[in-house]
Design goal:
- The protein has 165 residues and is mainly beta.
- The chain has a single domain, classed as Immunoglobulin-like (Sandwich).
- The protein contains 1 helix and 13 strands; from the N terminus they run H-E-E-E-E-E-E-E-E-E-E-E-E-E.
- The N terminus is likely disordered.
Amino acid sequence: MIAGIALAVVVVAAILFLVGPGSKSGSQQAGDSNKSLTRSDVPERIKVPEMGEEVGKGVAAPEAVASASVTGNNKYRIFSIAADKNAFSPDTIIANVGDVVHINFTAVDKTYDLTIPDYGMKQIVHKGETKVLEFQTVNAGKFMFYCDLCGGLNSEVKGYVIATK
């Protein structure tokens, strides 16, 4: 019985890996398999903040930045996002394409989730908990994340990961 459940989990994980990020039907518009409801172009004049730099309102300042590889320019960036009073704070993360983004996600006043459909990620966090989401930005774009438990795409509980070149 346990072996069967473990096999089913492995099969589902393999299918999700093969299908890849951005393939969930909720991230696509009807009739247009290449157009995402949660992805848009990178805004002009976007600057990736480094540690200790001033950031705009709602933009997450990285808590740590380190080289992600010996040979490349990719960075490992750590951010924290809190969900409280039906809002993410901060609500925008900016990184370079190829960077590894590590998010410490905390639910302050109730249970929230952080769903990033273009990366195939969802993390549910109960009041008082902190959990981690980690992924590598693979394409340039402005990717919406939101709380599915709070109303999904129609919710005011949303934010953005901006990956720029």
